[in-house]
Structure formats: structure tokens, C-alpha cells
Design the sequence.
């Protein structure tokens, strides 16, 4: 690829690259970390550690999904708890009632979440901005209220996951841990590939200016629907893991708007619109929860205040600070121009 | 006849929803800001009324005279500090900031007042009613709420239609830049809109606190009902919002009559049906000229 500069006698050669030096380091660091986490249950992780890490992995998945919606699709949803709940009920229904076993039940739960999200999108997409946010919340309330009417799902009191009954606790906890580790890797990787794809370039254009994007041929509604369904499947995955980790599904906890609030805090703290941001945010949120949850309601007062300050004064989040405003990219999604040696006009090949 | 009774109760409940919704609608109309803390702020007003009544022994309706200006000042300050800053940031900032504000308010109220249900005591007024027919009785307090709701909507409509500042608000709503070029101070208009909006929330909050038992988490449902009334009625129309509130109220009370404990769900269903078949609302704003 070459480009001549106006008025200059030389042509600057320019190469387009996607990877950066930091991204090679990033891939290496993540590969080592995942390998270490994978052998953890044999070596250095207690059962309690594993259950805590499952919670962290769930937070990373949730943050990644909310970031996909808001940071790339420009959609602020307060109703993602709908799909977390559907995923949680979905794994119990598939594993116990259909008897497919807990591991096969996870993708089934995700497909149910995605299918319901697809149907619901036709209603939700009639609203935009802040009204979209409240509209998704109403839809989540409706899904919760309908769930509590279904006696096969335990109505208002909830249901237990019994597919693991009979398994030794060590085996069960390690199985759920590996499921969660594999899930978080797949969720982040799929999101990354989705955003890097041609579709993803459209998402970014869409987020920045929907009208201009539409003029350039981006199918606005279709792109938003792809993101919406993908994010719902990710939330369904997180919900299924939540049920597998706690073995108990209660409508008031799996359909709680607090789960979406957590997603928002994770993304805002970590940094919106990057792949790394929600991972950093989830780790910080997880740590804060471990140390500050004794403060009771004050904990959420502090978290809410921090979130507002971050939105107003540090919109790139912690990852924005750590990466030096985007100079370090572990998961590069954009294109970079690298200038090669200048070529004199006369010596240019014909 | 119990159905007729349910409808009457629903209409009266609609007056309260319209009061709650009018402020939400006004802020959105003027500055395209959806205030997700709207419901939480209504609960702040309810607690303010409760504290005034309990500590000073003043009559509940008199507390409105103090709560409304306090909420209006709070609105002005919020707009001058937090909200104007948020409006100048990226597109998602106002939604995220008002959501954060709702979380902060709800949890501060939990620390101050615990999660116990409370209610503002109006004595015998709470249970007194007017017998219309042997089967239909209109509660005096719900009737007062409804009349206040209709009056407030009417006054707000007249204010927006006939006063200079009201015209400035409508101009800002239609075209912010053009209004600014005509010499309208947007920041002043925004602050005024939020002050009026929270003043309305002040009235609505005290009425809500008298009408039902409430606790700090009630802000969520309050926001949702106000939003549903706005969307059912149609964006940009205050009388539409009143009608939307009444339709939501009727759906909830008639729904509860038909399926006890599912009243709220049927309200949501009516909202979703409107969204599916009349996404502009039942009474959308008529554009003149």
C-alpha cells in the first residue's frame, strides 16, 4: 500500500498492521495465565479458591457482554438480568428435566437466552437511549414475573440444580471451575473476534454515529440485533455458571437488577470500549467486593460515587490509565499505519 | 360491579402515575435526558415528608409546601453540578451518571431509614370514602391525588404554552442551537426544567408515601411506572401522559381484580402491547405548522 504526499517528491510507503508488540506479549501472558489456572485445581487452588474464581470468571463474562452492548453497540441495557436468569433456569431445566447432563446443558441454556433475546429485540428496539435502558428493565421484570408463575420452575421459591448430585464435592467444584475457565476464554475470544470482524467495524461506526453509519451501508438494526443476541447468550452463559456454582436458582437473585448494576460498574471502572477494560474492571470489582462488602449499603454508595466520577472524569477507565491512553493494546481491534522507508519518486517501480 | 370499581380505582391511581411521569417527560423533552434517578428521588421526597410529619407533627399535606421547594432546589443544584457536566460528555454519560445516582440514593436511604416499610399517616383520611353506588366507593385520598394530578398537569401545560420561559423551554426542546442563537440561556432553561421536574416529584413522592407503604427500594418500580405512563401516552404530550398514567392504573387494578398478585405484570403487558402496536404512544404530540 502506498500513498503519495501532496507536494513531496518522495512517496512514503505505509503498511497496515493489526497486531502490536504489546499484543504479542499480551497473548503470551494470557496463555501462561490460562495454563496456570487450568492446572490450579491439581496444584494450588483450594475448593474455596475455585468457587471464588468462578465468581470472578462470571464477572469477566458479564462485564465483557455489557461492554459489547454499550461500548460497541451504543446500547445501555438495564435488563441483562433477564438473560442471566434465563441461563440459570435454562441449565437446571436442561440438565435435570431433559437429563442431558450439566455440561451439554450450558450451550442449551445459551441458545434459549439467545432465542428469547431475539424475540424481545423487536420490542426493545422501538426505544432508544435512556428509554431503551428502562424498556429493557421492564422486559426483564416481565420475564421474572412470568417465571415466578411457572410451577415447573419452582414458582416464586426457585429450584435446585440436582444434576451434580452423587458427584464428590471436589470433582463437582473442579468441573464447574473448568467449565467457567473455558467459558471465560471462549466469551472473551469470541467477543474479540466479533469486534475485529467486518461486522465489528460496522458496530464501531454505529456506536459513534448511527446515521452516518447507515449512510455508509451498515445495516444498523441488523448489527444491533447481532450484538444484542450475542450479549444475551453471554449473559445466559454467566447465568448457567452462576447456577452451577451455587446449585440454587431463586428468581429474586438471578433476575436482580443488581447483577446489571455490577456489569455497569465493572465496565465503567475498567474502561468502556476496549476488550481489556472489563477484565481489569471485573478483577477490581471482585477485589472490592471481597474487602468492602462488610460496609453494607455504604459499599454501593462508594461504588456508585466512584462510577460517576469515572464516567465524568476518566471515561477510559482504569485500563485507559494503565495502557497510557491506548498505547498498549493486548487485544488490538483497530488498524495501525506503519511508515516504511521513503522511496524517491524517480526510483519508483513502474 | 366490582369491575367498575376496579376501573375507577385505576383511573384515580393514574393521577399519581401522571404526576410522577410529568417530571420525567419534561426533562426528556427539554434536554433529551432520561433521569434514571427519577424514582429514587420520588422516594427521597416520600421520606422527607415522613420525617417532617413525624418530627414536627405538621399535617401531611402541609409538608408538601416544604418538600416541593427543597426538591426543586436539589434539582437546580443537581443540574448545575452533575447533570450539565454529564450532558457535555460522551453520549452514554447522562444515562450512566443518573443510574449511579439512583444506586447512591437508594443505598443512602437504606443506611438512614433501613429496609422497613413505612408510610405517612394521614389518620382517618386514609380510610374515608364517598359511596357513589352500593358497589362503587371512591376513596377521598385517591380522589384528592387524582385532582391534584390533573391540576398540576393542566398548570404545567399552561406554563409551557403561555409564559416566556415556557416558550423558551419548548424552543430549546425543538432546536437547542437555534434557541441559543435567539438569546436563550440553555443552562438556565435546563436548570429550571430539572427544578420543576423535581418539584413535581416532590408532590408525587409525598402522595405516594401517604398512599402506600414504601421502602428505599421502591424507587425502581416508581421509575418503571412513570416511564410506562410516558410511553403509553406518547412522548411530548402532557395530556397524553395523564391518559397513559390512567391506562396503566386501570391495567394494574383491573389486572389485580382478575388475577390477584398479577396486577403489576398486566400493567407491563399493556405497556408492551402499546410498544408493539403503537410505538409512538396512544396520544403522540401533534406537530403544528
Sequence:
Amino acid at each position: 500500500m502506498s500513498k503519495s504526499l501532496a507536494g513531496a517528491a518522495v512517496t512514503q510507503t505505509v503498511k497496515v498492521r493489526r497486531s502490536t508488540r504489546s499484543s504479542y506479549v499480551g497473548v503470551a501472558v494470557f496463555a501462561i495465565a490460562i495454563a496456570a489456572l487450568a492446572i490450579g485445581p491439581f496444584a494450588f487452588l483450594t475448593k474455596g479458591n475455585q468457587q471464588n474464581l468462578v465468581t470472578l470468571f462470571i464477572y469477566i463474562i458479564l462485564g465483557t457482554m455489557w461492554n459489547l452492548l454499550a461500548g460497541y453497540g451504543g446500547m445501555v441495557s438495564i435488563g441483562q438480568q433477564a438473560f442471566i436468569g434465563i441461563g440459570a433456569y435454562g441449565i437446571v431445566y436442561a440438565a435435570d428435566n431433559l437429563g442431558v447432563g450439566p455440561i451439554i446443558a450450558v450451550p442449551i441454556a445459551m441458545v434459549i437466552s439467545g432465542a428469547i433475546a431475539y424475540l424481545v429485540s423487536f420490542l426493545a428496539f422501538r426505544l432508544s437511549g435512556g428509554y431503551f435502558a428502562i424498556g429493557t428493565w421492564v422486559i426483564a421484570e416481565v420475564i421474572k414475573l412470568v417465571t415466578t408463575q411457572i410451577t415447573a420452575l419452582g414458582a416464586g421459591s426457585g429450584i435446585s440444580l440436582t444434576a451434580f448430585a452423587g458427584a464428590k464435592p471436589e470433582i463437582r467444584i473442579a468441573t464447574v471451575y473448568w467449565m467457567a475457565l473455558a467459558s471465560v476464554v471462549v466469551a472473551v475470544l469470541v467477543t474479540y473476534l466479533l469486534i475485529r470482524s467486518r461486522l465489528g467495524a460496522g458496530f464501531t461506526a454505529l456506536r459513534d454515529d448511527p446515521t452516518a453509519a447507515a449512510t455508509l451501508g451498515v445495516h444498523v438494526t441488523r448489527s444491533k440485533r447481532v450484538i444484542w443476541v450475542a450479549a444475551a447468550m453471554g449473559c445466559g452463559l454467566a447465568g448457567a455458571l452462576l447456577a452451577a456454582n451455587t446449585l440454587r436458582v431463586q428468581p429474586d437473585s438471578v433476575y436482580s437488577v443488581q447483577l446489571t448494576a455490577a456489569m455497569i460498574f465493572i465496565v465503567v471502572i475498567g474502561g468502556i470500549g476496549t476488550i481489556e477494560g472489563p477484565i481489569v474492571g471485573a478483577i477490581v470489582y471482585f477485589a472490592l467486593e471481597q474487602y468492602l462488602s462488610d460496609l453494607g449499603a455504604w459499599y454501593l454508595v462508594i461504588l456508585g460515587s466512584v462510577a460517576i466520577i469515572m464516567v465524568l472524569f476518566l471515561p477510559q477507565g482504569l485500563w485507559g490509565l494503565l495502557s497510557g491512553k491506548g498505547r498498549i493494546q493486548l487485544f488490538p481491534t483497530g488498524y495501525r499505519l506503519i511508515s516504511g522507508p521513503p522511496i524517491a519518486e524517480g526510483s519508483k517501480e513502474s | 360491579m366490582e369491575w367498575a370499581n376496579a376501573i375507577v380505582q385505576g383511573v384515580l391511581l393514574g393521577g399519581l402515575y401522571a404526576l410522577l411521569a410529568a417530571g420525567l417527560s419534561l426533562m426528556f423533552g427539554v434536554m433529551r435526558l432520561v433521569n434514571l434517578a427519577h424514582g429514587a428521588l420520588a422516594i427521597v421526597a416520600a421520606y422527607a415528608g415522613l420525617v417532617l410529619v413525624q418530627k414536627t407533627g405538621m399535617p401531611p399535606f402541609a409538608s408538601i409546601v416544604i418538600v416541593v421547594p427543597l426538591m426543586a432546589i436539589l434539582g437546580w443544584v443537581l443540574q448545575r453540578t452533575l447533570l450539565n457536566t454529564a450532558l457535555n460528555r460522551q453520549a452514554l454519560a447522562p444515562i450512566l451518571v443518573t443510574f449511579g445516582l439512583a444506586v447512591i440514593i437508594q443505598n443512602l436511604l437504606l443506611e438512614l431509614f433501613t429496609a422497613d416499610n413505612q408510610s405517612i399517616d394521614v389518620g382517618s383520611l386514609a380510610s374515608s370514602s364517598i359511596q357513589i353506588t352500593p358497589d362503587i366507593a371512591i376513596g377521598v385520598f385517591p380522589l384528592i391525588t387524582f385532582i391534584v394530578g390533573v391540576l398540576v398537569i393542566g398548570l404545567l401545560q399552561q406554563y409551557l404554552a403561555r409564559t416566556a420561559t415556557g416558550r423558551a423551554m419548548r424552543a430549546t426542546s425543538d432546536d437547542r442551537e437555534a434557541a441559543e442563537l435567539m438569546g436563550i440561556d440553555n443552562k438556565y432553561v435546563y436548570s429550571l426544567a430539572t427544578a420543576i421536574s423535581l418539584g413535581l416529584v416532590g408532590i408525587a413522592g409525598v402522595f405516594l408515601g401517604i398512599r402506600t407503604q414504601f421502602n428505599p427500594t421502591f424507587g425502581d418500580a416508581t421509575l418503571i411506572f412513570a416511564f410506562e405512563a410516558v410511553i403509553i401516552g406518547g412522548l411530548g404530550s402532557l395530556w397524553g401522559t395523564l391518559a397513559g398514567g390512567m391506562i396503566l392504573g386501570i391495567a394494574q387494578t383491573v389486572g389485580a381484580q382478575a388475577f390477584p398478585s398479577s396486577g403489576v405484570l398486566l400493567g407491563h403487558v399493556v405497556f408492551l402491547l402499546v410498544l408493539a402496536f403503537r410505538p409512538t404512544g396512544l396520544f403522540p404530540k401533534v406537530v403544528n405548522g
Summary: Confidence is low (pLDDT under 50) at residues 1-7 of chain A.
